[in-house]
Write a structure and sequence with these properties.
By secondary structure, the protein is an alpha+beta fold. Helices cover 35% and strands 18% of the residues.
């Protein structure tokens, strides 16, 4: 019995030391983020770092970013999360880890996972004409689609031939339905979802392509996109502060971070109320980190709550490489609804986001090491600040993919 208690004591001592080491590592890495940022500039060769060290608060002021929230993943778990600044300039309401930000185009990563779940279940096929599944609306036929059809794979990888467009609408005439958005009909003021080149012939980033996916999912599921997202992603993962429904319900509005332009002036959200899949997610970094962890665990064969290992590996497999010139010299590949950095076991998956008039999001994770980070800001220049934050996170946790 004495040996048994000695063994238990030794085991608890080891566990305690491990926790202490984890806590010390987190404290040091938080300190690096808060006090050791290096200035980033975009030069002729892409991102350039200076040796001018600064605090996070100073860089937030430099970029006119009033509020920021971060969640850092290590060993497939959220190791720490922090909020900084305020929800709206000129107020004293602080950003916390429970504050909701616009995920912007990072929403596409969630949309892609939902679509691939339906592929996994056999309700959709990646390489079949999506008009075979669409019921409420169909992609118009023209000289480009007669040569090749629009498929889910092409929509996910921005090769559908559909245009790049913003999503304004005539507020006096009312909020457009999703079908009015897809048709480019009043009160919508966007380009219609009509092919402008042969599908599959080139890469062109298309927000409206993801809203076609939204319509596709609603037609196949027979329910609103927000309900589908809640059932497949938010509820299984415990993402209690995530929604595609906007305006937010009253209980969440007090936690909403407001957007700010490049000067730091506060504005109103321009969230679309019906075209959601391309950029309509409201969430927290901690919730998005739970989603990133699930994708990594699926890729590792440790979970199937959303996707199987096979489907996760299809999602995170490089379809093709992108022109580095499009991304400021950064070499990226295109997966199924996700960007990829690095090769082999040292790759990471990522998706940035930026919404007018001024919110940004950056999600990146390395499946081989179970590491990642989500950075959300309520300022138009938050993306440059995110690159400065990425540096101490990547170096502090020794990501295998390396620095930008």
């Amino acid at each position: 019995m004495a040996r048994f208690f000695a063994f238990i004591f030794a085991l608890l001592t080891v566990a305690s030391c491990t926790v202490q080491k984890q806590d010390q590592r987190a404290v040091q890495n938080i300190r690096n983020v808060e006090n050791g940022l290096l200035e980033v500039k975009i030069g002729p060769q892409g991102l350039e770092r200076t040796q001018n060290a600064a605090t996070l608060s100073a860089r937030m002021a430099f970029y006119n970013v009033p509020g920021l929230s971060i969640a850092v993943i290590n060993d497939n778990e959220i190791e720490w999360a922090r909020g900084y600044g305020v929800l709206k300039a000129g107020t004293g309401t602080p950003v916390t880890t429970e504050s909701l930000f616009e995920a912007a185009s990072t929403s596409k990563l969630v949309t892609a996972a939902i679509a691939l779940r339906y592929v996994q279940e056999g309700a959709l096929k990646l390489d079949e004409d999506v008009n075979a599944y669409l019921k409420s609306w169909r992609i118009p036929e023209n000289e480009f689609t007669r040569e090749k059809k629009v498929t889910l794979r092409l929509l996910l990888t921005h090769q559908s031939g559909l245009p790049t467009t913003n999503f304004g609408y005539d507020a006096e005439a009312g909020i457009p339905t999703l079908i009015q958005v897809l048709n480019g009909e009043s009160p919508a003021r966007n380009r219609a979802a009509v092919a402008k080149f042969v599908p599959g012939s080139k890469w062109q980033y298309s927000n409206i392509g993801y809203d076609v996916i939204q319509q596709l999912l609603e037609d196949v599921a027979g329910k609103p996109f927000e309900h589908v997202a809640r059932e497949i992603v938010f509820e299984p993962l415990g993402m209690k502060s995530s929604t595609f429904a906007y305006p937010l319900e009253p209980a969440l509005q007090a936690r909403e971070a407001m957007p700010h332009d490049e000067t730091g002036a506060a504005g109103e959200h321009r969230m679309h109320h019906t075209a959601l899949a391309h950029g309509g997610l409201m969430t927290t970094p901690s919730d998005l980190a739970l989603f990133a962890v699930e994708l990594m665990r699926a890729y590792q064969g440790k979970s199937e709550r959303i996707l199987s290992q096979d489907m996760a590996r299809q999602m995170l497999h490089g379809e093709f490489d992108l022109d580095p010139g499009v991304f400021g010299g950064i070499a990226l590949g295109e997966g199924l609804g996700v960007f990829l950095r690095g090769k082999g076991q040292s790759f990471s998956f990522l998706h940035p986001g930026s919404n007018l008039p001024g919110t940004t999001c950056w999600l990146e994770a390395c499946p081989a090491s179970g590491q990642g980070v989500v950075i959300m800001a309520n300022g138009a220049q938050g993306e440059l600040l995110s690159f400065e934050i990425l540096s101490p996170v990547i170096s502090g946790y020794q990501w295998p993919v390396g620095q930008y």
